[in-house]
Amino acid sequence: MIEFRHVYKTYPGPVHALKNVEFSIGKGEFVFLTGPSGAGKTTLFRMLSAFDRPTSGKVQVGDFDLDRLDAQSLPHFRRKIGIVFQDFRLLRDRSVFENVSLPLRVKEERAHLIARKVDEALAWVGLTSKAEFSPAVLSGGEQQRVAIARALVHQPGLLIADEPTGNLDPDMSEGIMDLMERVCAQGTTVFVATHDHAMVERRKKRTIQIKEGAVVGDSSVGGEAATGMI
Ligand SMILES: Nc1ncnc2c1ncn2[C@@H]1O[C@H](COP(=O)(O)OP(=O)(O)OP(=O)(O)O)[C@@H](O)[C@H]1O
Ligand SMILES: [Mg+2]
User: Fold this and answer.
1) pTM of the full predicted structure?
2) Which of 43, 46, 146, 230 has the smallest CB count inside 10 Å?
């Protein structure tokens, strides 16, 4: 489903934000991405969501070659994924309901279907009562949950979530991770960047670690080595 091959990203400076990143993730997998602040997690997700292109290397998601995606294919690709941005990126002049409905509107779904799916998604994140509010008056954790509902409302094939529990209390974080596991069990590939080591420990999922732009650990690789060919 996801392939990174020899991916480098260099920002002016130069800042070598990604260095020879290589991994693949299968359809329906649940994977954590961990690494210290500045390691390159958000940069990696920018490549994976086609917000930016690698300086060199190959990024493939399903049938889409993201390192050479043309402008016409971009909206088709985006409709298949859900993204929770580290900084939420909600529209402050629209209501919570309207924000969450956006991925359905671009698919030109019917109004009654949109209403039902948005209500459902808001219920998943416990925000039914805030549907008509502006995100501007919500707490940081509530805004983060709106962003999660928006990323999931159209049942994407791939969910990319950058620190989705960074603003949530421990109980809410657990609830959101349970939700993501349920979504994964229904077939969505889930890739979550997090600093929360305790949560990663508890969930026992594949974990890719990056440091200074390079992959320094992948628990699935270790797992294979530990169990294979004995
Ligand atoms: N547009 C840019 N121009 C120059 N340098 C950048 C740019 N974007 C990111 N960087 C640098 O690339 C490196 C990786 O940044 P990135 O945001 O990917 O880290 P991160 O792992 O997401 O960190 P955090 O955990 O704090 O969110 C950092 O050194 C950062 O300063
Ligand atoms: Mg980041």
Assistant:
1) 0.94
2) 230
Per-residue pLDDT of 186-206, as tens digits, reads 999 999 999 999 999 999 999
Listed as ranges, residues in the chain with pLDDT below 70 are 221-230
Average model confidence (pLDDT) across the chain: 94
Number of domains in the chain: 1
Report the alpha-carbon distance of residue 45 to residue 39 in Å, rounded: 12
Residue with CA closest to ligand 1 atom 26: 37
Distance 82 CA to ligand 1 centre (A): 21
Centroid of ligand 2 to alpha carbon of 113 (angstroms): 34
Listed in order, strand segments (DSSP E) in 36-85 are: 56-61, 64-65, 81-84
CATH number of the domain residue 216 falls in: 3.40.50.300
The closest ligand to the CA of 51 turns out to be 1
